[in-house]
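> forwarded from #structure-qc
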């Protein structure tokens, strides 16, 4: 094996060292020194057999550039396509992150089993037998999917050269290992080097590569932040492991919007696409219960009806507890303060618990009004009618603020059979005739008089 020249650089100030040390002498930062390759031997990493290595690019006028066929590979998974912006772009690198056990391997294996192209699924985490067992639960009839258990990038490229797959999936980037770097798999320098080799392969052969990445305990993708800069698309697979719903979001997408969202349900036979989420997220109980309210939210371009549940009870201990699942706790405190100050509810000595059903995290401000309504309903122990819903933001002075794309929310509520939707008076609505009653309110007192 030819010798590779590596050296150590501080990631903070760029000072170079001959060997690793804990603290940088120059900037005094700890743990910033990382091994980097400075010179590789000839014929080292990916080298495409057909294309000449020294291809130079010439500048073109922007309107001379041909963009007519931005062909995307259909993944045959509606939710995955939606999040990617219409399919996989050839030659792109996509990174999928998520907590352990959330279903990353299941999702990508399921997609590779659906594809009619030749796919290579490289796993450094499970054996071929284990993957076969999983594949049998999902879709046993696919003959285009090849499984390779390997962690060394040089060997992977050798297999790729022999197989010439149309798409490559790597599970996971943290298990890969390149011979050119001494440090162990999963270290910053290994991840960087392996990703660089994969990018070179993807761009030269126009083969898309999907990578699975682990996340750290604070939810970031493990490894250097630069990994997220290097790839074209960063997807996050999230959800509560105890719930069946999984949400796929794009955090970064060079080829599409990052607003889109895919929803899956984990079943015994893999992940099922949920194309009409509203119907599942609302519990279909017959009786009306106090503390429940339904919000017409938007996730990306898609309207989503979500049920909010609140429980308000007298605090048993001295300090009242406030807790929120799926909703920002600071925002909950703010809404409670608004209710106290503007509508005169004494909530200071009450425990307030708030839960968004389905284990979904909502950051659409339009959910505010439903949160307030559910708190009022629980506090007064008055059940709201089952067929009303809410879509508005609540401001600090108790004003009901308009939200974006309110008409889309109204139409979704109407489609699902709601009879009334509460929205802000300041929203401009140009819908001609609706079956659903659109109740306009301007301040929080209006809501109180309407509901209680
Ligand atoms: P996995 O894809 O291994 O997670 P990750 O790669 O993100 O660590 O997901 C494993 C979980 O999914 C595991 O707890 C079992 C569950 N599962 C199902 O419920 N149904 C299925 O068909 C499969 C394949 C897995
Ligand atoms: Mg896995």
């Amino acid at each position: 094996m030819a010798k590779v020249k590596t050296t150590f650089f501080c990631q903070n100030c760029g000072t170079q060292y001959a060997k690793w040390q804990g603290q940088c002498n120059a900037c005094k930062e700890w743990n910033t020194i990382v091994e980097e390759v400075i010179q590789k031997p000839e014929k080292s990493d990916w080298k495409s057999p057909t294309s000449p290595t020294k291809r130079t690019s010439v500048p073109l006028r922007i309107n001379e550039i041909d963009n007519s066929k931005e062909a995307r590979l259909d993944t045959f998974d509606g939710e995955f396509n939606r999040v990617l912006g219409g399919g996989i772009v050839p030659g792109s690198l996509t990174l999928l992150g998520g907590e352990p056990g959330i279903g990353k391997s299941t999702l990508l294996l399921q997609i590779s089993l659906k594809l009619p192209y030749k796919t290579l699924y490289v796993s450094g985490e499970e054996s071929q037998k284990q993957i076969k067992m999983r594949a049998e639960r999902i879709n046993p009839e696919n003959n285009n999917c090849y499984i390779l258990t390997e962690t060394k990038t040089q060997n992977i490229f050798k297999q790729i050269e022999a197989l010439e797959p149309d798409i490559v999936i790597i599970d996971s980037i943290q298990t890969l290992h390149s011979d050119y770097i001494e440090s162990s798999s999963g270290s910053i320098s290994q991840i960087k080097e392996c990703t660089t080799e994969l990018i070179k392969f993807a761009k030269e052969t126009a083969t898309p590569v999907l990578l699975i990445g682990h996340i750290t305990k604070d939810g970031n993708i493990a490894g250097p932040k630069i990994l997220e800069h290097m790839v074209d698309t960063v997807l996050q697979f999230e959800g509560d492991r105890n719930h069946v719903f999984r949400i796929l979001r794009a955090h970064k997408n060079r080829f599409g919007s990052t607003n889109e969202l895919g929803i899956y349900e984990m079943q015994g036979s893999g992940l099922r696409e949920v194309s009409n989420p509203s119907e599942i997220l609302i519990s279909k109980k017959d009786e009306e219960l106090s503390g429940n309210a339904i919000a017409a939210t938007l996730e990306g371009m898609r309207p989503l009806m979500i049920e909010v549940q609140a429980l308000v009870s007298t605090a048993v201990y001295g300090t009242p507890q406030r807790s929120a699942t799926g909703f920002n706790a600071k925002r909950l405190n703010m809404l409670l303060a608004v209710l106290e100050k503007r509508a005169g509810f004494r909530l200071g000595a009450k425990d307030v618990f708030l839960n968004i059903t389905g284990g979904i995290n909502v950051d659409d401000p339009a959910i505010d009004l439903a949160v307030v309504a559910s708190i009022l309903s629980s506090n007064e122990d008055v059940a709201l009618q089952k067929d009303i819903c809410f879509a508005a933001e609540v401001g600090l002075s108790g004003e009901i603020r308009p939200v974006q794309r309110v008409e889309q929310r109204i139409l979704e509520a109407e489609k699902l059979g709601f009879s009334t939707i509460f929205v802000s008076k300041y929203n401009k609505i140009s819908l001609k005739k609706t079956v659903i009653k659109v109740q306009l309110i301007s301040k929080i007192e209006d809501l109180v008089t309407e509901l209680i």
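QC bot note: The chain is about 25% helix and 25% strand. The CA atoms of residues 328 and 363 lie 8 Å apart.
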